[in-house]
Design goal:
The complex is a heterodimer. By secondary structure, chain A is an alpha/beta fold. Chain A is built from 13 helices and ten strands. The radius of gyration of chain A is 21 Å and the shape is globular. Chain B has one domain: MetI-like fold. Chain B is globular, with a radius of gyration of 20 Å. Classes of the chains: A alpha/beta, B mainly alpha.
Chain lengths: ~270, ~230
Amino acid sequence: MGLMLTLSSPFLRAAPPTQKAVILATTTSTQDSGLLDELIPLFEKQTGYPVKTIAVGSGQAIAMGRRGEADVLLVHSPEAEMGLVADGAGVHRRLVMHNDFVLVGPAADPAGLAKRTATEAFQRIAASQSPFLSRGDNSGTHAQELKLWKAAGIVTEKQPWYQQTGQGMGQTLAIAAEKHAYTLSDRGTYLALQKKIGLPILHEGDPSLRNVYHVIEVNPARFPKVNGAGARAFADFLVSKATQQRIKEFGIARYGSPLFFPDADVLHADMHR
Amino acid sequence: MDLIWEGLRQALELLLRLDPEVLQITLLSLKVSGIATLLSVVLGLGLALGVALNEFPGKRLVIALMNTGMGLPPVVVGLFVTVLLWRNGPLGFLGILYTPLAIILAQSVIATPIIAGLGLAALQHLPPGLRLQILSLGATRSQMIWLLLREARLPLLAAVMAGFGGVISEVGASIMVGGNLKGSTRVLTTATVMETSRGNFEIAFALSFILLVLAFTVNAVLTHLQQRSRPR
């Protein structure tokens, strides 16, 4: 027994308790804004779980959750999220934070979007046939944009002024700037890129432009390979008081205003219009 | 244009300062693509020799397939390898998705047909009587193969360079099977894509320049080997 202890103790010391990695599938906005670069090292230090962040669109992140190929999702595509939870592939969906979408476009504003509601703004883009760039990638932003077109009663399919980039928000904003086109962006990515692209915000503040992020754990009962404990730890971390405070302060120093607003305390029902 | 100069300046600065993150990303790119190229040399040259030295039905079809493989799109390879390596997929038990090993695997799939295709062309370009001549002088089969490879070393090294160039520069497979994880699977190309989408164009340019310098250095070494041993 004593021999075993002497033999094993150096090994115990040499190898700190390493936890199984947590695969986080998330949207590009949380990575491109730099928020995750700030939060994830803290989580890793606190819990010992290494995190593998796969930054893709919300559509792909939810699809990965649906197949049990991710452990936890941080996404912003409410309808698709509720579908995932209804199917039983996702559990314990919790509100983390929000920001909002902004409609940006050329400073000359040929469609005249200023001081309109979101619905009117989208109708004016269509009526004036001004170029509009869609993400077209099943991301949360893309889902939101499709919802807004629908609300405005516009069919964008095959319209020459409507183009899809199929790329991330940063790329799409850059292309919109080059092509003097309108596009819908989450505020976080927009603020991070504002100086580089120089497209002004032409419409903001409409309640239908709210951009809500939820954390969802992939159901370990359905997918035995899912790291349920790690996923729960990460979700708990995101909604914890200390993390919520960090989210609140994130970006102020660099962009002059916060990029995300913490919401873990808000009653779930209030967030669903 | 000023962005490019700014990128060049930042690249020099990052390199001279030996920025630990950039250094780690650069070394990982070299390691991953280097190992993938070595694996592909073994597999690709084996395949090329097998096809060059043997006559069998459907040989032309095999050659056509190898030549098609030279143009294998990295994203297609990335998609296949990702699905194979998914933890609920057929090779999920390996547990290597989102690790450097997964990138090595995907890049080997990309580089092997390049080296095999160009290697085969190099071997087939040798004078047809050479093989018989070597054998008639009493060489064993492995001695014969060694002499053939030596004889074709100039185009064969070009094949290796093409294979390395194909994988060090690809991004589609690396980002899918590696996940661009900071400190673990972030290589120069995936970091460039990320910095571009973050709007950090200067850093993206800086990483691009470092990638070009790395590719040049490796190819300069290989070219040196190739030209030194040029038959006179």
